[in-house]
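Lecture notes, unit on protein representations.

Consider one protein chain, 62 amino acids long.
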Amino acid sequence: MLELLLLQYRELFDEAFPLADFEGKPEIDVINILYDCVSRNLPYSPERTFTRRITEAPGYKG
């Protein structure tokens, strides 16, 4: 799922998502941020609040 969202992000915004900024963060958090960006058609901004929409993914411990 992460790989697909990264590809969608690149296609939509013509730039790579700043994945290195999230090193050490749970994968589910990155997935939710990417999903929010792609679904709202808004590039990533550290100032924006993101909504958790996906609650189950590999490595999610709730």
